[in-house]
Structure formats: C-alpha cells, structure tokens
Design goal:
This protein is mostly helical. The protein has a single domain, classed as MetI-like (MetI-like fold, Orthogonal Bundle). Helix content is 79%, strand content 0%. The protein is built from twelve helices and no strands. It is a multi-pass membrane protein. InterPro entries: MetI-like, MetI-like_sf.
C-alpha cells in the first residue's frame, strides 16, 4: 500500500510539473522553425532567428541595456541588502520586525502598484527615461532577495567568532570582512543571482520608466509581441530560459555548498 501510494504521488507530481513546463517545451522548438509561423508540424529547421537576433541593432541594444541595468542593480542590491541583513541580525536592533517588513515589501506589493509609485516618485526628480532611474528601481526590487538569503545565512553564523576576533584586537569592519563575509558568501552570491534574474527579466517597471532609447530585452520582447510577432522572440525566450536554468543550477550548488559548510562547522 505504501509503495502504491508513493508511485501515485510521484506520478501526480510529474503530471503537475509537465503541465507547468508544457508551454516552455512548446515554444522552444519554434525558435528553430525555418518559416516565420508559430505552427506545428514545422516545415524545417533553421537558425535564422538566432542569426537575426545577433545581427539586429535593435535587439543587441536592448540586450546591452539589460546587461548594464542588471549588473549595476545587482551590485547595488547586493551591497545594500547585505548591509541591511547584517544590521537586522543584531538582537539589539529596535523594531527589527517592522523594518524587515518594510524592506521586503517590494516582494509582496503587486509589481504594477510598485511601478506606479516609482513612476510618480522618479518623475518628481527627473529620473524618467533613463537607465539610472531603471537601475535604482531594480535595486529596490532586488535588494529584498539579498536580504532574505543573507539573513538565512546569518541565522547559522556563530557570533562567538566575531567576539574572538575582537578579543584579538580586530576592528569590527575587519572582522566582518575577513570572518563573517567569507562564511556567508554562498548566501550573498545566491541573493545576487536572484537580484540579477529579477532585474534581467523585469518588464513592468521598465514599461513605466523607460523610453524608446532605453529599451531592455524584456521590453523589446513585449513590444515585438504587440507590434510584429516574430520567431525571433521565441529565440530570445529560449535563451532566457537557458539562462534562468543556469542561474537556478548555480543557486542550488551554492545552497548545497552552504549546507555542507554549516555541517562541517557543527561537526
């Protein structure tokens, strides 16, 4: 009975996973279609849509903008999120729960609501239609992910190491950089990957804040769907799926490494 229940559970789980990834599995082969139609069966295979992406100034400029915004936003979000996590990890921090709730609110509030609020705030200071404004907005969206992952790493950190370093004459910033950060590095890198993925795939805030000259890759895909549906969009979507899969594998590896490091310290 137990074995039958286990098989049924695995079968149900597999069907649910297949249902969730079926749209992805359906769109990826279309990026290799030799004809500009989203139809099955495909008349032939071709790499023309990938070639069109890498030879189009519009697509390459949107890719460049996405990389600039994602890298800059990731650096800022990682720096600010890590500092916030270290500060909130201190037990003497007043109203820690309230501050945490405010900092992670971008993950809870609907993205459209956040986009409208950011739009009006940035309009007042002249940050619309600029990559700078989009970088700051994506920093606010990515920092909560860094805060959560670093806070989880700090939950298992032994603060006696910091006290021992202080007794040996190390200054607080020296102990933080040389003792704490190396030990929580997997959590920091995981948060940075989450922040990068959030910024690189984000489209709603980009629609509100950027103009035609600051188009990011997701915004260009959105415009392509509305204006001229082309298999090039399927090619871009396929590359984004592969990138997301790679980031997920790296995050799982970092989490596994952090678990092994924690078990080694406890042992």
């Amino acid at each position: 009975m137990t074995q039958r229940y286990s098989v049924l559970l695995w079968l149900t789980g597999g069907l649910v996973v297949l249902f969730l990834i079926a749209p992805i599995l359906a769109i990826m082969p279309l990026s290799f279609n030799s004809e500009p139609f989203f139809t099955y069966p495909m008349p032939g295979l071709s790499l023309r849509w990938y070639e069109e992406f890498f030879t189009s100034n519009v697509w390459l400029m949107s890719l460049k903008n996405s990389l600039i915004v994602a890298v800059c936003a990731t650096i800022l979000a990682t720096f600010l999120g890590t500092l916030a996590a270290i500060g909130l990890a201190r037990k003497e921090c007043p109203v820690r729960g309230l501050i945490m709730a405010i900092l992670i609110s971008p993950m809870i509030v609907p993205i459209v609501v956040s986009a409208v609020g950011i739009y009006y705030a940035f309009a007042a200071v002249g940050l619309l239609n600029s990559l700078t404004g989009l970088i700051l907005a994506h920093t606010a969206l990515g920092a909560p992910f860094v805060l959560i992952t670093v806070s989880a790493s700090l939950a298992g950190f032994d603060y006696n190491l910091m006290r021992a370093a202080a007794n040996l004459g190390a200054r607080p910033h020296t102990a933080t950089l040389q003792i704490m950060l190396p030990m929580i590095a997997p959590g920091v890198f995981s948060g940075a990957l989450f922040a990068f993925a959030t910024s690189f795939d984000e489209v709603v805030v980009a629609l509100f804040l950027t103009g035609s000259e600051e188009r990011t890759l997701p915004k260009q895909m959105w415009s392509g769907v509305r204006e001229q549906l082309s298999p090039t969009i399927a090619a871009v979507a396929t590359m984004l799926i592969l990138l997301s899969t790679l980031l997920l594998i790296v995050m799982l590896w970092l989490q596994n490494r952090a678990e092994k490091q924690k078990q080694r310290l406890e042992g």
